[in-house]
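Q: Two folds, back to back.
A: First:
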Amino acid sequence: MLEIFPAIDLQNGQAVRLYKGDMRSATIYGDPCGFAKRFEQDGAKWVHIVDLDGALSGKSENLAAIESIRKNTKLLLQLGGGIRDEESIKRYLDLGIDRLILGSLAANSPELARSLAEKYPIAVGIDAINGKVAINGWVESSSIDALDLARFYQGSRVQALICTDIGRDGALSGVNVDFSVAMGRASGLPIIASGGLKDAQDIASLSQAFAAHSLQGGVIIGKALYEKRIDLPEAFMQAQRK
Protein backbone atom coordinates (compact mmCIF):
# COMPACT_ATOMS: atom_id res chain seq x y z
CA MET A 1 0.00 0.00 0.00
CA LEU A 2 1.24 3.47 -0.88
CA GLU A 3 1.50 6.12 1.83
CA ILE A 4 -0.25 9.31 0.74
CA PHE A 5 1.51 12.61 1.45
CA PRO A 6 -0.61 15.72 0.83
CA ALA A 7 1.76 18.60 0.12
CA ILE A 8 2.03 22.13 1.49
CA ASP A 9 4.61 24.33 -0.23
CA LEU A 10 5.33 27.54 1.67
CA GLN A 11 6.21 30.88 0.14
CA ASN A 12 5.93 34.13 2.12
CA GLY A 13 3.82 32.36 4.73
CA GLN A 14 1.24 31.14 2.20
CA ALA A 15 0.43 27.73 0.73
CA VAL A 16 1.39 27.87 -2.96
CA ARG A 17 2.07 25.60 -5.89
CA LEU A 18 4.76 26.15 -8.50
CA TYR A 19 4.82 25.15 -12.14
CA LYS A 20 7.83 22.98 -13.00
CA GLY A 21 9.78 24.43 -10.07
CA ASP A 22 9.72 28.03 -11.29
CA MET A 23 9.60 30.28 -8.20
CA ARG A 24 8.01 33.05 -10.28
CA SER A 25 5.08 30.84 -11.22
CA ALA A 26 3.52 30.48 -7.76
CA THR A 27 -0.23 30.15 -7.50
CA ILE A 28 -1.30 31.25 -4.01
CA TYR A 29 -3.91 29.07 -2.32
CA GLY A 30 -3.99 30.59 1.17
CA ASP A 31 -3.58 29.62 4.81
CA PRO A 32 -1.28 26.57 5.14
CA CYS A 33 -2.56 25.63 8.58
CA GLY A 34 -6.11 25.59 7.26
CA PHE A 35 -5.10 23.12 4.56
CA ALA A 36 -3.24 20.96 7.08
CA LYS A 37 -6.35 20.78 9.29
CA ARG A 38 -8.45 19.82 6.29
CA PHE A 39 -6.00 17.10 5.29
CA GLU A 40 -6.09 15.73 8.84
CA GLN A 41 -9.89 15.72 8.85
CA ASP A 42 -9.83 13.80 5.56
CA GLY A 43 -7.74 11.06 7.16
CA ALA A 44 -4.16 12.02 6.34
CA LYS A 45 -1.42 10.61 8.56
CA TRP A 46 1.44 12.63 7.06
CA VAL A 47 1.83 16.02 5.45
CA HIS A 48 4.76 16.94 3.23
CA ILE A 49 5.95 20.53 3.81
CA VAL A 50 8.53 22.42 1.76
CA ASP A 51 9.85 25.85 2.73
CA LEU A 52 10.42 27.20 -0.77
CA ASP A 53 11.99 30.43 0.46
CA GLY A 54 14.30 28.42 2.70
CA ALA A 55 15.33 26.23 -0.22
CA LEU A 56 16.72 29.36 -1.89
CA SER A 57 18.24 31.04 1.16
CA GLY A 58 19.52 27.96 2.98
CA LYS A 59 17.74 28.84 6.23
CA SER A 60 14.25 28.68 7.72
CA GLU A 61 12.03 31.37 6.20
CA ASN A 62 8.50 30.19 7.05
CA LEU A 63 8.90 29.18 10.67
CA ALA A 64 5.64 30.76 11.87
CA ALA A 65 3.59 28.76 9.36
CA ILE A 66 5.42 25.55 10.23
CA GLU A 67 4.94 26.13 13.97
CA SER A 68 1.23 26.80 13.42
CA ILE A 69 0.77 23.48 11.62
CA ARG A 70 2.68 21.66 14.36
CA LYS A 71 0.63 23.25 17.16
CA ASN A 72 -2.76 22.84 15.52
CA THR A 73 -2.62 19.30 14.12
CA LYS A 74 -1.50 15.83 15.15
CA LEU A 75 -0.18 15.06 11.69
CA LEU A 76 3.26 13.58 11.15
CA LEU A 77 5.30 16.33 9.50
CA GLN A 78 7.88 15.70 6.79
CA LEU A 79 9.77 18.92 6.16
CA GLY A 80 12.33 20.11 3.64
CA GLY A 81 13.74 23.34 2.26
CA GLY A 82 17.01 24.92 3.37
CA ILE A 83 18.07 22.22 5.85
CA ARG A 84 21.81 22.20 5.28
CA ASP A 85 23.45 21.52 8.65
CA GLU A 86 23.03 19.46 11.80
CA GLU A 87 21.93 22.44 13.88
CA SER A 88 18.94 23.02 11.60
CA ILE A 89 17.96 19.39 11.97
CA LYS A 90 18.12 19.63 15.77
CA ARG A 91 16.07 22.83 15.85
CA TYR A 92 13.30 21.33 13.74
CA LEU A 93 13.26 18.12 15.78
CA ASP A 94 12.94 20.22 18.95
CA LEU A 95 9.96 21.92 17.27
CA GLY A 96 8.31 18.53 16.80
CA ILE A 97 9.02 17.79 13.14
CA ASP A 98 8.95 14.04 12.53
CA ARG A 99 11.20 13.68 9.47
CA LEU A 100 13.65 16.07 7.80
CA ILE A 101 14.39 16.13 4.09
CA LEU A 102 17.94 16.75 2.90
CA GLY A 103 18.19 17.85 -0.70
CA SER A 104 21.11 20.11 -1.64
CA LEU A 105 23.17 18.79 1.29
CA ALA A 106 22.49 15.21 0.23
CA ALA A 107 23.73 15.96 -3.28
CA ASN A 108 26.73 18.11 -2.36
CA SER A 109 27.85 16.19 0.76
CA PRO A 110 26.41 12.68 0.46
CA GLU A 111 28.74 11.17 3.06
CA LEU A 112 27.55 13.73 5.61
CA ALA A 113 23.93 13.02 4.74
CA ARG A 114 24.49 9.30 5.27
CA SER A 115 26.06 9.93 8.65
CA LEU A 116 23.26 12.29 9.72
CA ALA A 117 20.75 9.58 8.81
CA GLU A 118 22.44 7.34 11.37
CA LYS A 119 21.36 9.76 14.12
CA TYR A 120 18.20 11.47 12.91
CA PRO A 121 14.99 10.68 10.97
CA ILE A 122 16.15 11.68 7.51
CA ALA A 123 14.71 11.42 4.01
CA VAL A 124 16.79 12.38 1.00
CA GLY A 125 15.20 14.47 -1.72
CA ILE A 126 16.51 13.79 -5.22
CA ASP A 127 15.04 16.31 -7.64
CA ALA A 128 15.90 15.68 -11.27
CA ILE A 129 15.82 17.54 -14.57
CA ASN A 130 16.50 15.24 -17.52
CA GLY A 131 18.07 12.74 -15.17
CA LYS A 132 20.44 15.23 -13.51
CA VAL A 133 20.09 16.45 -9.92
CA ALA A 134 18.92 20.03 -9.31
CA ILE A 135 19.95 21.86 -6.13
CA ASN A 136 19.45 25.13 -4.23
CA GLY A 137 15.71 25.43 -4.72
CA TRP A 138 15.92 23.85 -8.18
CA VAL A 139 17.58 26.96 -9.62
CA GLU A 140 20.89 25.17 -10.24
CA SER A 141 21.46 22.04 -12.29
CA SER A 142 24.36 19.79 -11.36
CA SER A 143 26.30 17.14 -13.26
CA ILE A 144 25.23 14.50 -10.72
CA ASP A 145 23.25 11.64 -12.21
CA ALA A 146 20.08 11.01 -10.19
CA LEU A 147 20.40 7.23 -10.40
CA ASP A 148 24.05 7.35 -9.29
CA LEU A 149 23.06 9.43 -6.28
CA ALA A 150 20.28 6.98 -5.45
CA ARG A 151 22.77 4.10 -5.58
CA PHE A 152 25.03 5.90 -3.13
CA TYR A 153 22.32 5.69 -0.45
CA GLN A 154 21.77 1.95 -0.89
CA GLY A 155 22.18 0.24 2.49
CA SER A 156 22.03 3.52 4.42
CA ARG A 157 19.72 4.45 7.31
CA VAL A 158 17.93 6.99 5.13
CA GLN A 159 14.21 6.40 5.69
CA ALA A 160 13.09 7.19 2.15
CA LEU A 161 14.10 8.83 -1.10
CA ILE A 162 11.75 11.56 -2.28
CA CYS A 163 12.10 11.53 -6.05
CA THR A 164 10.80 14.48 -8.03
CA ASP A 165 10.67 14.81 -11.79
CA ILE A 166 10.84 18.60 -11.90
CA GLY A 167 9.65 18.71 -15.51
CA ARG A 168 6.30 17.36 -14.34
CA ASP A 169 5.97 19.13 -10.99
CA GLY A 170 2.83 21.25 -10.79
CA ALA A 171 1.96 20.44 -14.39
CA LEU A 172 -0.69 17.76 -13.76
CA SER A 173 0.92 15.76 -16.53
CA GLY A 174 1.13 12.45 -14.69
CA VAL A 175 3.61 11.05 -12.20
CA ASN A 176 6.79 9.58 -13.71
CA VAL A 177 6.31 5.94 -12.78
CA ASP A 178 9.39 4.67 -14.65
CA PHE A 179 11.68 7.19 -12.94
CA SER A 180 10.25 6.31 -9.51
CA VAL A 181 10.74 2.58 -10.09
CA ALA A 182 14.28 3.08 -11.40
CA MET A 183 15.21 5.08 -8.32
CA GLY A 184 13.78 2.39 -6.07
CA ARG A 185 15.67 -0.38 -7.83
CA ALA A 186 18.90 1.64 -7.72
CA SER A 187 18.68 2.46 -4.01
CA GLY A 188 16.75 -0.40 -2.45
CA LEU A 189 15.04 2.22 -0.27
CA PRO A 190 11.39 3.22 0.08
CA ILE A 191 10.50 5.70 -2.66
CA ILE A 192 8.15 8.65 -2.29
CA ALA A 193 7.22 9.70 -5.81
CA SER A 194 6.69 13.39 -6.47
CA GLY A 195 5.85 15.62 -9.39
CA GLY A 196 2.89 15.73 -11.73
CA LEU A 197 0.32 13.45 -10.10
CA LYS A 198 -2.97 14.27 -11.78
CA ASP A 199 -5.65 11.78 -10.71
CA ALA A 200 -6.57 8.50 -9.03
CA GLN A 201 -5.37 6.49 -12.02
CA ASP A 202 -1.85 7.79 -11.41
CA ILE A 203 -1.99 6.36 -7.89
CA ALA A 204 -3.19 3.03 -9.24
CA SER A 205 -0.43 2.91 -11.86
CA LEU A 206 2.27 3.73 -9.32
CA SER A 207 0.91 1.21 -6.81
CA GLN A 208 0.87 -1.55 -9.42
CA ALA A 209 4.41 -0.75 -10.57
CA PHE A 210 5.75 -0.71 -7.01
CA ALA A 211 4.08 -4.05 -6.29
CA ALA A 212 5.51 -5.56 -9.48
CA HIS A 213 9.04 -4.58 -8.42
CA SER A 214 8.58 -5.27 -4.67
CA LEU A 215 9.08 -1.60 -3.81
CA GLN A 216 7.78 0.24 -0.76
CA GLY A 217 6.94 3.93 -0.48
CA GLY A 218 4.35 6.53 -1.20
CA VAL A 219 3.34 9.47 -3.33
CA ILE A 220 3.08 13.22 -2.81
CA ILE A 221 -0.10 14.91 -3.99
CA GLY A 222 0.00 18.65 -4.50
CA LYS A 223 -1.71 20.59 -7.25
CA ALA A 224 -4.22 17.83 -7.97
CA LEU A 225 -5.61 18.34 -4.47
CA TYR A 226 -5.68 22.12 -4.64
CA GLU A 227 -7.30 22.08 -8.05
CA LYS A 228 -9.81 19.43 -6.91
CA ARG A 229 -8.74 16.88 -9.50
CA ILE A 230 -8.73 14.32 -6.68
CA ASP A 231 -9.73 14.33 -3.03
CA LEU A 232 -7.90 12.63 -0.19
CA PRO A 233 -10.52 9.98 0.63
CA GLU A 234 -10.43 8.90 -3.02
CA ALA A 235 -6.62 8.86 -2.95
CA PHE A 236 -6.57 6.68 0.17
CA MET A 237 -9.04 4.24 -1.35
CA GLN A 238 -6.96 3.94 -4.52
CA ALA A 239 -3.73 3.47 -2.57
CA GLN A 240 -5.22 0.55 -0.62
CA ARG A 241 -6.19 -1.41 -3.71
CA LYS A 242 -3.93 -4.21 -4.86
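A: Second:
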Amino acid sequence: RRRYKLLKRIFDLFFVLCLTPIALPLILLGVLLTIFTSKGGAFFHQVRVGREGKLFKIYKIRTMVINEGGFTVANDTRITPIGKILRFTKIDELPQLCNILVGDMSIVGPRPVVVSERDVIEAREKYGANDVLPGLTGWAQINGRDNLSTDMKAELDGYYVTHKSLIMDIRCIVRTIPYVLKRKGIV
Protein backbone atom coordinates (compact mmCIF):
# COMPACT_ATOMS: atom_id res chain seq x y z
CA ARG A 1 0.00 0.00 0.00
CA ARG A 2 2.66 2.49 1.00
CA ARG A 3 4.73 1.68 -2.08
CA TYR A 4 1.69 2.08 -4.33
CA LYS A 5 0.88 5.50 -2.79
CA LEU A 6 4.42 6.68 -3.42
CA LEU A 7 4.43 5.35 -7.00
CA LYS A 8 1.02 6.91 -7.67
CA ARG A 9 2.24 10.29 -6.39
CA ILE A 10 5.36 10.08 -8.56
CA PHE A 11 3.16 9.06 -11.51
CA ASP A 12 0.82 12.03 -10.88
CA LEU A 13 3.70 14.51 -10.68
CA PHE A 14 5.35 13.07 -13.79
CA PHE A 15 2.04 13.23 -15.69
CA VAL A 16 1.45 16.85 -14.62
CA LEU A 17 4.98 17.82 -15.68
CA CYS A 18 4.49 16.15 -19.07
CA LEU A 19 1.12 17.85 -19.59
CA THR A 20 2.22 21.32 -18.49
CA PRO A 21 3.85 22.40 -21.80
CA ILE A 22 0.59 21.52 -23.59
CA ALA A 23 -1.81 22.67 -20.88
CA LEU A 24 -0.27 26.05 -20.07
CA PRO A 25 -0.87 27.66 -23.49
CA LEU A 26 -4.42 26.24 -23.53
CA ILE A 27 -5.11 27.60 -20.05
CA LEU A 28 -3.72 30.99 -21.05
CA LEU A 29 -5.89 31.01 -24.18
CA GLY A 30 -8.96 30.03 -22.14
CA VAL A 31 -8.24 32.72 -19.56
CA LEU A 32 -7.79 35.44 -22.18
CA LEU A 33 -10.92 34.45 -24.08
CA THR A 34 -12.92 34.37 -20.84
CA ILE A 35 -11.68 37.78 -19.69
CA PHE A 36 -12.26 39.48 -23.04
CA THR A 37 -15.70 38.00 -23.76
CA SER A 38 -17.52 38.18 -20.43
CA LYS A 39 -17.54 40.15 -17.19
CA GLY A 40 -15.75 38.73 -14.18
CA GLY A 41 -12.59 36.88 -13.35
CA ALA A 42 -11.13 34.09 -15.40
CA PHE A 43 -11.15 31.39 -12.75
CA PHE A 44 -13.87 29.63 -10.83
CA HIS A 45 -13.28 27.74 -7.63
CA GLN A 46 -15.62 25.59 -5.62
CA VAL A 47 -15.29 23.60 -2.42
CA ARG A 48 -15.30 19.87 -3.08
CA VAL A 49 -15.01 16.77 -0.92
CA GLY A 50 -11.68 14.97 -1.15
CA ARG A 51 -10.17 11.87 0.38
CA GLU A 52 -11.73 10.91 3.72
CA GLY A 53 -14.04 13.94 3.64
CA LYS A 54 -11.28 16.57 3.52
CA LEU A 55 -12.58 19.73 1.87
CA PHE A 56 -10.53 21.51 -0.78
CA LYS A 57 -11.01 24.13 -3.48
CA ILE A 58 -11.14 22.84 -7.03
CA TYR A 59 -10.06 25.25 -9.76
CA LYS A 60 -11.49 25.65 -13.25
CA ILE A 61 -11.65 28.32 -15.91
CA ARG A 62 -14.96 30.15 -15.49
CA THR A 63 -17.52 29.06 -18.11
CA MET A 64 -20.67 30.68 -16.74
CA VAL A 65 -21.81 34.24 -16.20
CA ILE A 66 -20.77 35.59 -12.80
CA ASN A 67 -23.01 35.42 -9.72
CA GLU A 68 -24.88 32.42 -11.05
CA GLY A 69 -24.72 29.22 -9.07
CA GLY A 70 -26.36 25.84 -9.00
CA PHE A 71 -25.99 22.76 -11.14
CA THR A 72 -25.94 23.11 -14.89
CA VAL A 73 -28.67 21.64 -17.04
CA ALA A 74 -28.93 20.85 -20.74
CA ASN A 75 -28.78 24.02 -22.88
CA ASP A 76 -28.05 26.13 -19.79
CA THR A 77 -28.28 29.81 -20.75
CA ARG A 78 -25.84 30.78 -17.98
CA ILE A 79 -22.95 29.20 -19.90
CA THR A 80 -21.09 31.79 -21.95
CA PRO A 81 -20.40 31.18 -25.65
CA ILE A 82 -16.67 30.77 -24.89
CA GLY A 83 -17.63 28.66 -21.88
CA LYS A 84 -19.38 26.19 -24.18
CA ILE A 85 -16.18 25.74 -26.15
CA LEU A 86 -14.05 25.45 -23.02
CA ARG A 87 -16.40 22.82 -21.60
CA PHE A 88 -16.63 20.94 -24.90
CA THR A 89 -12.84 20.72 -25.18
CA LYS A 90 -12.36 20.22 -21.40
CA ILE A 91 -9.90 23.13 -21.34
CA ASP A 92 -11.87 24.52 -18.37
CA GLU A 93 -10.72 21.50 -16.32
CA LEU A 94 -6.97 22.01 -16.93
CA PRO A 95 -6.38 24.25 -13.87
CA GLN A 96 -7.09 21.12 -11.81
CA LEU A 97 -3.53 20.12 -12.65
CA CYS A 98 -2.65 22.56 -9.84
CA ASN A 99 -4.92 20.55 -7.51
CA ILE A 100 -2.96 17.45 -8.49
CA LEU A 101 0.36 19.22 -8.01
CA VAL A 102 -0.48 20.21 -4.41
CA GLY A 103 -1.86 16.75 -3.60
CA ASP A 104 -5.60 17.46 -3.30
CA MET A 105 -6.32 15.34 -6.35
CA SER A 106 -4.80 12.62 -8.48
CA ILE A 107 -4.90 12.06 -12.23
CA VAL A 108 -7.17 9.04 -11.69
CA GLY A 109 -9.75 8.56 -8.96
CA PRO A 110 -13.43 9.23 -8.34
CA ARG A 111 -14.40 12.72 -9.54
CA PRO A 112 -14.50 15.21 -6.64
CA VAL A 113 -18.00 15.77 -5.31
CA VAL A 114 -19.68 19.08 -4.47
CA VAL A 115 -20.31 19.36 -0.71
CA SER A 116 -24.09 19.57 -1.20
CA GLU A 117 -24.23 16.19 -2.99
CA ARG A 118 -24.83 14.23 0.24
CA ASP A 119 -26.45 11.33 -1.62
CA VAL A 120 -23.32 10.81 -3.74
CA ILE A 121 -21.00 11.07 -0.73
CA GLU A 122 -23.08 8.53 1.21
CA ALA A 123 -23.28 6.15 -1.76
CA ARG A 124 -19.50 6.35 -2.23
CA GLU A 125 -18.96 5.66 1.47
CA LYS A 126 -20.74 2.33 1.05
CA TYR A 127 -18.17 1.28 -1.59
CA GLY A 128 -15.06 2.84 -0.02
CA ALA A 129 -14.74 5.41 -2.80
CA ASN A 130 -14.19 8.27 -0.35
CA ASP A 131 -10.97 6.64 0.87
CA VAL A 132 -8.83 7.72 -2.11
CA LEU A 133 -7.88 11.03 -3.68
CA PRO A 134 -10.42 12.27 -6.20
CA GLY A 135 -9.25 12.35 -9.79
CA LEU A 136 -9.30 14.32 -13.00
CA THR A 137 -10.73 11.18 -14.57
CA GLY A 138 -11.98 7.94 -13.11
CA TRP A 139 -13.51 4.53 -13.69
CA ALA A 140 -17.10 5.83 -13.50
CA GLN A 141 -16.19 8.65 -15.90
CA ILE A 142 -15.25 6.20 -18.64
CA ASN A 143 -18.03 3.72 -17.97
CA GLY A 144 -21.13 5.83 -18.46
CA ARG A 145 -20.58 9.10 -16.62
CA ASP A 146 -23.81 11.15 -16.72
CA ASN A 147 -25.82 8.17 -17.97
CA LEU A 148 -25.33 6.35 -14.66
CA SER A 149 -27.36 6.45 -11.48
CA THR A 150 -25.69 7.77 -8.33
CA ASP A 151 -25.41 4.26 -6.91
CA MET A 152 -23.91 2.84 -10.12
CA LYS A 153 -21.30 5.63 -10.22
CA ALA A 154 -20.46 4.93 -6.57
CA GLU A 155 -20.20 1.21 -7.29
CA LEU A 156 -17.85 1.84 -10.22
CA ASP A 157 -15.77 4.22 -8.09
CA GLY A 158 -15.65 1.46 -5.46
CA TYR A 159 -14.50 -0.99 -8.13
CA TYR A 160 -11.63 1.36 -8.90
CA VAL A 161 -10.67 1.51 -5.22
CA THR A 162 -10.57 -2.28 -4.85
CA HIS A 163 -8.63 -2.73 -8.11
CA LYS A 164 -6.40 0.34 -7.97
CA SER A 165 -2.98 -0.03 -9.50
CA LEU A 166 -0.77 1.91 -11.88
CA ILE A 167 -1.96 -0.39 -14.67
CA MET A 168 -5.58 0.49 -13.80
CA ASP A 169 -4.66 4.19 -13.81
CA ILE A 170 -3.03 3.88 -17.24
CA ARG A 171 -6.13 2.05 -18.55
CA CYS A 172 -8.33 4.88 -17.26
CA ILE A 173 -6.16 7.55 -18.87
CA VAL A 174 -5.98 5.74 -22.22
CA ARG A 175 -9.76 5.15 -22.23
CA THR A 176 -10.45 8.77 -21.22
CA ILE A 177 -8.93 10.22 -24.39
CA PRO A 178 -11.47 8.76 -26.87
CA TYR A 179 -14.25 9.18 -24.31
CA VAL A 180 -13.60 12.94 -24.14
CA LEU A 181 -13.07 13.31 -27.89
CA LYS A 182 -16.34 11.51 -28.67
CA ARG A 183 -18.16 13.27 -25.78
CA LYS A 184 -19.50 9.91 -24.59
CA GLY A 185 -21.66 9.84 -21.49
CA ILE A 186 -22.17 13.60 -21.30
CA VAL A 187 -25.74 14.72 -20.87
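Q: And?
A: The mean pLDDT is 90.
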